[in-house]
Amino acid sequence: MQYISTRGSSNPLTFVQAVLEGLARDGGLLVPKEIPDFSGQLNRLSSLSYKELALEVFTPFVDGDIPREVLYKLIDKSYNVFANNEVTPLKFLDNITILELFHGPTLAFKDVALQFLGNLFEEILKNNDIRLNILGATSGDTGSAAIHGVRGKERINIFMLHPKGKVSPIQEKQMTTVLDKNVFNVAVEGTFDDAQSIVKQIFNDLEFRDKYHLGAVNSINWARVMAQIVYYFYAAFRFREKYPSTEIVFSVPTGNFGDIYAGYLAKKMGLPIKRLILATNENDILYRVLETGEYKISSVKSTLSPSMDIQIASNFERYVFDITGQKGEVVAQKMKTLAETGKFDLTAEEHNATKSVFLPVRVNTKETLETIRKYKVKGVLLDPHTAVGVAAAEKSGFSQVIALSTAHPAKFSEAVVNAIGEEPSYPESLIGILDKECKCETVKNNYIDVEKLIEAKFL
Ligand SMILES: *Cc1c(COP(=O)(O)O)cnc(C)c1O
After folding, report:
1. Which end of the chain is more exposed for a tag (fewer CB within 10 A), N or C?
2. Which atom of ligand 1 is nearest to the CA of 412?
3. What is the pLDDT of residues 12-42, one digit of tens each?
4. 193 pLDDT higher than 70
5. How much distance in Å is there from the Cα of 404 to the middle of ligand 1?
6. 165: how many CB neighbours lie within 10 A of its CB?
7. C-alpha–C-alpha distance, residues 203 and 197, integer Å
8. How remote is the CA of residue 64 from the centroid of ligand 1, in Å?
9. 459 has pLDDT over 70
10. How far apart are the C-alpha atoms of 144 and 171, rounded to whole Å?
11. Domain with 331 in it
């Protein structure tokens, strides 16, 4: 399988190269040149366990770069750490089926991809005798999932920047109580944007970047998208066992378009998904592009579902590349227009194709809180991100929807308390976490200081 750039002017890469590079050299995102067709095998696949299914889904994308037995070992190791042996179990309610994606070590769906990516990196680095220093900035979820994905791994250091005192206490502790010697938490005296901008400045210091083998784990890595395809198949198969003739509709709380793009790929691979409900909070750039055909940046608003508070949905570029018929020069032009004017347009044809797959639904704070309250009465406590997806499912008009539950409610307890007036119960990994020993260095809002830190700790 060849991996090509969405902007059309990089040389094709293998799977392993695509995982190591993260981003294409021309600034585009890497995508597989072809999408495998599983439509003739659905029957056989439907009886597999989660891990066996992951092996089948990954095989054509990995395309022999990693031997099948080794690939299965990586999958096995990644999903053994999940607290539920189904990995992503389903809970059937009347009109909604909840797909629980939060049984990983940091209690959010990002673990599904980042546990696998950590093990995959370790394997690739070992085989090529290279080292990697991962550098990132986080406002919460991605940082802790990335740290837990690579803690204790050979040949990898991780430097994760967060804005000092501006991450929720639980999320901060999920990062800083990881004491492994390859994990470096860095609290920046500034905002999340300051931390992000330090990371960008360091990545742009090409000499430094090459010398210290810097890499990223953000949602643009292809392997993350690939890992997320699996649970769409798994959920659809379990759903069909219960409702053999009901159409399959997923509702996906969306920020960066990563999770829902994996659902789009599952559909392209032949899984009979009728519709993907694209659920957004008040940060509604994706809702608006579906309504109007115009992708237009506006300012970020803080909501109860912070992991969806984004301005640009990076993975949307992969989707646009697909609907233009893989015309890299067309995508490059749209991205140039976006950088210059803050917006770009879909053509009428692209817009119509998009509307036939995705149904956009926007959910506000009031609806989110009401949904948490309503489902509490039904006996299920939703986190605010999941509540956005569930509320969107209810507003969609479909009578049966699989709603992706992207985080455990205890992880966002403030919003839960706000909705129901009481604390959620805490899973074992969070009990006592606020009092545990932690490790974190504070730096000034200055990229040179962060570079010095990386130099001092370089492996
Ligand atoms: C990251 C995240 C999302 C959004 O996922 P995208 O792939 O960015 O669309 C939703 N919910 C939670 C809890 C998250 O951490």
Report:
1. C
2. 13
3. 999 999 998 888 888 899 999 999 999 999 9
4. yes
5. 10
6. 10
7. 10
8. 30
9. no
10. 7
11. 90-107+223-428
CA of 40 from ligand 1 middle (Å) equals 31
User: If you take atom 1 of ligand 1, which residue's CA is the nearest one?
Assistant: 307
Q: How far is the CA of 111 from the centre of ligand 1 (A)?
A: 11
Please give the average per-residue pLDDT across 352-369, as a whole number: 98
Alpha-carbon distance 387 to 407, whole Å? Answer: 10
* CA-407 nearest atom, ligand 1: 13
Count of beta carbons in the 10 Å neighbourhood of residue 109: 29
- Residue 268 annotated among the catalytic residues of the structure: no
3-5 and 30-32: which strand pairing?
antiparallel
What value does the mean pLDDT take over residues 306-318? 89
Q: Does the CB atom of residue 254 touch ligand 1 within 6 A?
A: yes
Residue 54 lies in a domain: no
Q: Whose CA is nearest to atom 2 of ligand 1?
A: 307
Q: If you average pLDDT over every residue of the chain, what do you get?
A: 94
Residue among 98, 250, 406, 413 to mutate when testing ligand 1 (max atoms within 8 A of CB): 406
| pLDDT tens readout for residues 316-340 | 999 999 999 999 999 999 999 999 9
Ligand 1 lined by 407 (C-beta under 6 Å): yes
> With 70 as the cut, is the pLDDT of residue 371 above it?
yes
CA angle 170/172/174 to nearest 5° reads 70
Is 157 within the bounds of a domain? no
Q: What are the Cα distances from residue 68, in Å, to 119, 139, 309?
A: 15, 36, 38
204 — pLDDT class (breaks 50, 70, 90): confident
Structure pTM? 0.95
- Output the CA 383–ligand 1 centroid distance in Å: 12
Query: Is 299 part of any domain?
Result: yes
Helix (H), strand (E) at residue 448 = helix 447-457
Single out the catalytic residue among 110, 153, 164, 267: 110
- Which residue's alpha carbon is nearest to atom 8 within ligand 1? 256
Q: What number is the average pLDDT over the span 222-237?
A: 97
Find out whether 327 and 319 touch, Cβ atoms under 8 Å.
no
What CATH number does residue 411 fall under?
Answer: 3.40.50.1100
pLDDT given for residue 282 in this prediction = 95
| Residue 402 covered by a domain | yes
Question: Of all atoms in ligand 1, which is nearest to the CA of residue 140?
Answer: 15
Q: What is the pLDDT of residue 27?
A: 84
